[in-house]
Amino acid sequence: MMQRILVAIPTYNERDHVKEVVAAVRGYVSNVLVVDDGSTDGTRELIRGIDGIDSVFHDANHGYGQALITAFGHALAHKYDWLITIDCDYQHEPAYIPKFQEAIAADDADIISGTRYLRTFNNNDTAPADRRRINQIITETLNERLGTELTDSFCGFKAYRVEALKRLSLDVAGYAMPLQLWVQAVDRGLRIREIPVRLIYNDPNRHFGGGLDDPESRLAHYISVLDEELRKTRQTPQPQAGHPIGSVLCP
Length: 251
Hints:
Layout: E1 5-11, H1 18-25, E2 32-36, H2 43-48, E3 54-57, H3 64-77, E4 82-85, H4 97-106, E5 111-115, H5 129-146, E6 158-161, H6 162-165, H7 177-187, E7 192-196, H8 215-235
Parallel strand pairs: 1-2, 1-4, 2-3, 5-7
Antiparallel strand pairs: 4-6, 5-6
Helix pairs in contact: 5-8, 7-8
């Protein structure tokens, strides 16, 4: 059966890349959503000028996690079968979308997560030391606490079975949202699969905001979000099908 697939691109001040990334993505899929998270550099004006795509504009910068939550809500509301998320900074290559489509066709997972560390590509970049270290620590911690076998806990290049998203209740707006996602995915029994993607770092000096540019503060924040979500999932009933996925912001 033909799957209806939506590709969502979260953006924040991506004026230099958004039109090219959207064009590249449309070489593989016809349904594209851009979620602009309060850009102030002219990105949203460029998005409005792109024909044939869906778009949602946050009134202010709410965070990467909220942009994804908005994309999840859009995919649910429009009854897509699968949602693929890809960043707008060329750290994810649209040419890998067919690999996700192949994994979707295999029909053996609910979350298909890109991993930059399962396979070494000849043209891989080198991850900034602090970001690689934090990723390793968080990935090992998730595997220990959840019984998973992840190799990359923070790759944003993913595919989600939209029906499975009904079972999640996500509300972490920032970069720590994947930790909430992993805990809930395991708690709700979602099937997880990783596929290799190339390691690309075009902006090794990216700012995380809110004091999280300091690696130790960022790691402590991630651990606190993980601990809190583990505490909640052990004390609260699982959401039933159709449970809201979180606060989805309107255009």
